[in-house]
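Q: Focus on the shape:
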Amino acid sequence: MTADDSMLQDPTGTRILVVDDEEDIRNVLVEHLSDAHLECTGAPGAFDALNKLKKHRFALVITDVLMPGMSGTELLRHIKKHDPDTEVIVVSGLMDLHTAVDSLRLGAFDFITKPFDLRTIWPVVKRALEHRRLVLENRYYQQQLEKKVLERTLELNDALREIEESYRVTLEALVASLDIREHETQAHSQRVREYALTLAERLGLEGDELLQVGRGALLHDVGKIGVRDSILLKAGPLTAAEWEEMKKHPRIGYDILRSINFLIPAAEIVLAHQERWDGKGYPNGLGGPDIPTGARIFAVVDTLDAMTSNRPYRKAQSFQAATEEIRRCSGTQFDPLVVEAFLTVDTESWVSIHESVNRVHQAQADFTALCRM
């Protein structure tokens, strides 16, 4: 028998206690209710019954009301307080409606008056025991259901974490391949993701919204996969025609990502990441709050990373210089509220993120080179 089976086959379900100060009535009930399946015990009063209840659990107590020392009603109240699963049948020699109602209110299963016919006792006892069994079974199955739901929930959460990790690795591999193609922006996508998450948290974003901001920042340049190398890697300034082709990359990135359900919110950020607060950006000329929040956040941190990273045509500028430029462009290029939140983050924090991402990127590059030897 398993532990679960033993819970259903409760041995207390066969144990009955008869409490009555009249010995003849008590003995008759004990004898009448005792058989091969029921263990019936008598007690001459409430105090003796309490001692027995301390030593054993009983499925059913049949108690008289009027007894010396403690009444059956008081005993009922004590039983229900300490073991609500014990059923109680109250017996009284008085046709007292108040006592009957009070007993039922306190949790008695039934109320029987004396004198009673022994043939009427047994059906009431059977109903009381059956009621207790059903209550316990229902509780057991409810607990088992809750246990299974919890187990399945934990399994689902584990599976979702594995999927999430798989997504993360896949997306980072995609971005890394783009960074390798565009040599001058090594680790740029990883840095702006970390910057964007920091700024988004400062603005109060959390949960899935925060996750999508990180994905949008990481994948913002995925559309450059559709831009020719002769334009993407051109050392000098772009011609007007080349610049028009370069400006297509937000739309290309959006078209790539929008067919992937879990990336649809990030795709909206990718599409709008070159829009400006004053409406002079591209591809749709959005302005103000029409620009997705994630794209407004990205615009600020993208400028931060662009100015503080080395490029073939110029050296990196200081974080102080980048901060001043972002402050200056508040209300034109950038959302003023996003800039305000950006300025609450100290410069040392931005520098720390920059250096941390670069260290990880360099370690990965060193490991890859070692594997190729």
User: Anything to note?
Assistant: Residues 1-9 have pLDDT under 50 and may be disordered. The CA atoms of residues 195 and 301 lie 6 Å apart. The longest helix spans residues 118-181. The radius of gyration is 39 Å.
